[in-house]
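To assess whether ligand presence alters the predicted conformation, the chain was also submitted together with adenosine-5'-diphosphate. Input:
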Amino acid sequence: MLIFLYMKDVIKCAGKETGFLIFCKLVNILGFFGEVFFIQRIIDFVFLEGKEIEVIFYAMFVFFIFIWQYSSPALSAHIEQKILFRYRMKLEAKIYEKISKVKFEYFENSAILEVMNRILDNPADRMVSSFGKILEIISGAVSTIGVMAIIVKIGVVYMIGIVVLILFLLFLFQQIGKIKSNIFCARMELTRREAYLSGLLFDRELAMEKKLFGYTDYIQKKIEEEIFENEKPLRWKLWQSRIITALYDYFVYLFSASAYLFFLVPLMQGKMELGLYIAIIPALQKIGTYFVGLIDNQLSDLKENENFCKDIHDVFQLEEQYYENKEMMRKDFSVIELKDVTYRYPNAERPIIEKLNLKLEQGHHYALVGKNGSGKTTLIKLLLGLYQPQEGAIFLDGQNIKELSFGELQSRFSVIFQDFGRYAMSIKENIEMGVGSFEGKAEKMQEACAFAGIKEEIEKLPEGYETKLGKLKENSVDLSGGQWQKLAVARMFYSQKPFYILDEPTSALDPVSESEMYTNYANSLKGNSTSLFVSHRLGSTILADQILVLEDGKIKEMGSHQELINKNGIYAKMFLAQRGLYV
Ligand code: ADP
């Protein structure tokens, strides 16, 4: 079982504390038997032998055992917290590291994404509580075996009787557990949907839309209706669950009550002393409670955590694709060639990119245009090695990029996507994030900000590049959509790579900023760098050396603005249609 592998990890990580926890459980077992033994002695001595001094001595032991039994859960919880503190740092760091390294494609697969999200749900807490539970199960099993050994001495038939009673109890609870788990699974779906809908009411990003459209009442009504509708078929099951929960304790008491009757026979026959008769019943009651706990939650929790371990294991098996060298790196290239590239999204009916051929040369500036959904972003992700084509191949200076490490590719490209990150950190951190440090950092940062058209705005701020961004802290500054976009462009430019890819870099900019950025773009990127930008505003494409028109999975037209206008094809129609809006 995988869970034992993780338990070994817990023991290795918090050796001393795990030792204390095992010690606590051992003392618990001793206390359990001590209680039976001393109570038995007290009764036998007082009623049968009249040894009063010994009785005081034994009573004191019982007193200390009781004190221990009441303080031990708190002590165990405290030790578990200490173990958790140590183990959390280790396990979570390992998981985060792995997730940061796995192939990008996994993030597009909803099943894998769900597993990755699942394992981030308090993984260390689950492992440490499993460790505690396994110790509980072992100590419960030892106590049960011990009590059975005592009962065997009275007569094998009595032991068999108790085993049958316990088995009956187990069977009962197993049936009950099945009903409860069915109800739980059915409710999970409901809870998830409810969490999503109520999340809409608290989502800060949606606050403005919610206010303007006034849809709070609408969502609240939807929650009520959906819960009412979906709970209908569950109503009878929920009733069952309530009755069953009430019966739980009842069965345990029934078990101990039947033991009183059951052992009356050997007591009357003189095969059992009065002390043992009185002492064994509370012990049996504890065992009954132990089995209830075992069936009701311990085993199901362990099973759930075993599945959780499997999830962690599966994530650790995912293929990696990452950039090991954290330092800034720049590697030049001459030509990138796509040959008969075909790409189809998983479960999609038809390919988005189909037998596409394209040659991108160093020093050129390309504009990629096409209708929404024509596959421009997909093509960029293929170029970056984030997706692998199902057919055909992409060659970087003659070498198939499939054979290159992700780091090799990263050292050539810098990208800004439409859904770029907005980080609640300082401006400086937003720009240099992931790029690493290199010489002339401050000047390079200013240059990048000038390119993105945000340098002056930053320098006017009292804390300049150190200004904290976002809405999380009181003294932090929030930027407009356009300013965030400029910052993302600065981040791209700051990384100093030979090939810049800009996917709709000006969608949030006003016309003046947009025109400024394209002028900067024309001035700064010309030279030895290469670029490819996607834009819907066709005026910007005039600056590109080559315009690539993507349609039906292929590059249908390629040429300079003038060439394509003269051709009077797809591009010319798009350009003229857009111009018509302004004239
Ligand atoms: P563009 O950038 O030209 O607007 P995209 O490359 O983003 O187009 O998307 C092309 C098509 O692929 C769209 O129809 C889109 O719905 C589909 N698509 C994009 N991402 C995924 C995905 N992860 N899974 C399935 N289909 C996708």
